[in-house]
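Page 47, continued from p. 46.
Same chain as before, 208 aa.
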Amino acid sequence: NLEKDCSEGRCKLNNLYGSVDGVASEDIRVHRPIATSRFEAYWIWSTHYGPKSMILLLDGRDAYFQLQPFEGLERSPVSASDGVLHFFSEMAAIRTSKQYNVRWLRTAYPDRKLYDYFLDEKIICSGSTMGEQVAMEAYLRAFATEFDLTQCLVKGCDQGLHNYLYYASKLKGVKGISKVVLHEQGKGNVNNLAGLRDKSLADWGIFK
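Result:
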């Protein structure tokens, strides 16, 4: 059984991993925000699906569907050994979110040169990702590796890692991922609204 070991808003997930003979083990990673460790659970769940199955990861509190989730999405050929990922951007540029998105990047990557060149790009929501299983599993492995490299323990750092993986091209050439499609805010099957709290949807021009 999964045992949660939490301290000051950060948790370990004991018994989540184990040996090949089924013996559960303690979590060897440091205490980390649940928003970060959930990607490890996503990876485990993703391994239970076939390589061409479509998977949706969604933080449903600030999103709504504009189409059926997988309707019309680009996929790789059935015969291909890799798959397509779909990311969804928000309205604002990363630079405008100093308290959150810039801080997450700065905490994960103290060397500003690693992210300064993409601060004018749009924020990509880490709570909405979909794609074929083979690509999703590869992305989730890359995410876990990025956490191990950065040890970013700030709540919300999952979005910093997510944006860095895309804009630093760390998903290009990864086995299992043929391409990553980035959908503009409001134009994909999923519409992320988290960055639109300060005005009504009508004022943003999104809802009329």
